[in-house]
Every structure is written in structure tokens, then in C-alpha cells.
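Researcher: Structure for this, please.
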Amino acid sequence: MGSFQLEDFAAGWIGGAASVIVGYPLDTVKTRLQAGVGYRNTFNCIRLVYMRESVSGFFKGMSFPLASIAVYNSVVFGVFSNTERFLSRNRYVEPGAGPGRSLSDLLLASMAAGMVSVGLGGPVDLIKIRLQMQTQPFLEANRGLKPKPAALGGQAAYHGPIHCIATIVRTEGLAGLYRGASAMLLRDTPGYCLYFIPYVFLSERITPEACTGPSPYAVWLAGGIAGAISWGTATPMDVVKSRLQADGVYVNKYNGVLDCISQSYRQEGLRVFFRGLTVNAVRGFPTSAAMFLGYELSLKALRGDHTVTSP
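Model: Predicted structure, C-alpha cell format:
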């Protein structure tokens, strides 16, 4: 898995699209819990979103990540697998001469994938969150701050992904598309370590020794568990990232990662950094299971392989 070829982009699109469709409603709930106000818990948030915005409220901003997820996932998965392969080949003179997959190689490859993900995924996440956060509760949370003109008129700041991008570039410059990138880097670098490494070891452990590769069930289960672990542990920095990226829809509240952490802690206490933890962990399982399974099976079909390959 993971060379930068046409089938990687196609497989990345299929796996990524599957993960977006499966996990997006809970992603909206997670974002509202972390960056919005007026929600007591997960079920209260789901109820309020449905009452105010119907089913469509859970899919706000979905078109942009769905359209761009092909490139994002194919490059992230490609960077991971190619980096691990490069490190392994330089460690051992002959391919396959080593005792197995090295934890240090997996760690470095995962960190490389995490750093690359920020460059590609930062703008995608920003647009998604800006569109998700065009809600009345968010406005009510910031009555003491000077709002932008759109807020005063009670109208939505953005009319869709393209308008959102154009507005951000016009008002904040190209750098505005990377608001919250530092928090995303702090989330994704360790996050991908806890994503790929558990997946690799779990899929290998679940697979019988007689098999040449993991079964679809092994891929699904290992991918789901890895996703739940990764997203659950990433929650504190995910809260900070979501707040920084939602900041600027109608008001500008934070001056960076440390200021966001400081203000959030002073106003809401330590537990604010674990807001959305349950949703993150629950959402992480089906989203990641769909991602790994969709990617592996589609890549196998495109390449004509008879076994599922492991990243």
C-alpha cells in the first residue's frame, strides 16, 4: 500500500468517502460540543441540532471534505507506507531480512504522515468547521465581543464552501486558511502514531499465521479499534483546534493555542478539554473501520491482488 500512483488516489477516495459518510453526523455533534455552547451533553446536542436544523443540520459542510478527501487520504497513507518502506530498506541490506516491522520505523512514518496531514487537511478542516458552526448558540456565546457585520444581520457568514474560502482569503489572506494549524499539528503528530501503529499490530495479531494477509474482518476490527484509540486520546488538542478554527466566523476571540487553552480553562475548567471525548471515541471506530476497509479492499481490487495488504 502507499505508492503515489493512480490506484492510491482512487482507493483513497473510496476509503475516505466511506469514512466521511459514516462519521460526518457525529463529527458535526463533536464540533458543536467542543466549540459551541448551549449543549448539556451528546444526546442533548443531537436533539437540539435536529429540532433547529432537521437532518440536514448534521451534514453541514460535508461537500468540501468529501470532495477533497481523496487527495488527503491517499497522500497521508502514501507518506506513511513509503516512509516506513524507505526506513526499513535502509535498515536492512536485503528486503525481508529483518525480524519484522520495526516500532521505530512505524513511529517515524506515522509522525511524517501527521505532519503532512496538516498541510493538506488544515484548510479542509477549517472550512468544514466554519460551515458547521454557523449556529445561533455560537453567536449567543460571544455577546460581549464585537461581532462581524454578518452576525449583526443574523445571516449566515458563508453560503457554501467556495464562498467560505473566498471570504477567508479576502479578509484574512492565505494564512487564514491555516488558522489552528499549530493545534492540528500537536493533535495529528501523536494522533497518527496512535492510529497506524495499533492498526498494524492489531491486524497482524488477529490474522492467523497461515494467512498471507489480514482478512476484511481483521482490517475492519483493527481499523476501528485504532480509530477509537487515536481520536479518544486526541480529544484535548482537538478541542483547542476546533475552537481556534471556529473562531473568526462572527468574532475573533483567541490569539493562538496558548491563549485558547488559557481562556477555555479559566472560563470552563479542566473538563472542557475532554468535551466530545465520548463522541470522538464512538465516532472513531466506524469512521476508521470504513477508512481502512474501503482503502484496502479497493486497492486490492484495483491492483488485482488476492489478499488484503496492510499499510
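Researcher: Any notable elements?
Model: The radius of gyration is 20 Å. Residues 136-141, 149-153 have pLDDT under 50 and may be disordered.
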